[in-house]
Specification:
It contains ten helices and no strands. Helices cover 79% and strands 0% of the residues. It is mainly alpha-helical. It has one domain.
């Protein structure tokens, strides 16, 4: 169980520092209905991540581990495929030249600022990081743990993955005066550093899972 958490919690940390959900949480906290919008956003984010994870565990749980407790070939190939996909995304972002529009405020920020609770819930659903939760689910499926331990690991993963957006919504409700300045700074930061942040994250995750898949297949 401890080794499983060491594998999946770093991925959850990467998810929680993703600037897009953080900025969405900040913007929603400045809307006319910050309480209901913030709670709708966090509720959708947590709920969909939990539903996605639970469905994966219920459908595939126990079928991707061999009798010796080792990960099956499906899991090993999944690790390799996920790693190569992230490396491919890294290369695409790297070779793509930033345009002038990349330095402007993205249109989605403006739309989030005008949305209500229903729209905030939709934003929560759209910002669930399926592409990064999926590798963690493969790790859980490939681990030699009980179903209860698998769900406990999933819960720990979701708690850490959503930690910063949750803290921001709670903190913003307690001190709305500081949020407006934080939103402006966050928007400027995202416009300037979104590309290098994605490059670092995609390269790191791609390298880890590609290496993991290759080593598992070789051995």
């Amino acid at each position: 169980m401890a080794s499983l958490l060491l594998q999946i919690l770093p991925v959850a940390f990467v998810i929680t520092i993703n600037p897009v959900p953080i900025i969405a949480a900040l913007i929603l906290s400045t809307t006319p209905k910050p309480l209901t919008s913030g709670l709708a956003f966090i509720g959708a984010l947590l709920g969909v991540m939990a539903l996605f994870g639970a469905l994966v565990l219920l459908v595939f749980g126990g079928s991707l581990v061999t009798s010796t407790g080792a990960s099956s070939g499906v899991v090993r190939w999944a690790w390799l495929s996920i790693g190569l996909a992230f490396l491919a995304a890294f290369v695409i972002i790297l070779v793509r030249r930033p345009s002038r529009s990349d330095a402007r405020e993205p249109r989605w920020m403006h739309l989030i600022g005008r949305t209500g609770p229903a729209g905030a819930a939709a934003v929560g659903v759209l910002l669930v990081n399926y592409e990064m939760q999926s590798p963690a689910m493969v790790d859980i499926l490939g681990a030699d743990v009980t179903r209860a331990q698998a769900f406990a690991a999933l819960s720990a993963f979701i708690a850490l993955a959503c930690a910063l957006p949750v803290l921001i919504v709670v903190g913003a409700l307690l001190s709305r005066e500081r949020v407006a300045l934080s939103v402006d700074r966050a928007k400027a930061w995202l416009a300037r550093y979104n590309r290098p942040v994605l490059l670092v994250l995609f390269a790191a995750i791609g390298a880890v899972y590609t290496t993991k898949g290759v080593l598992a297949l070789v051995h």
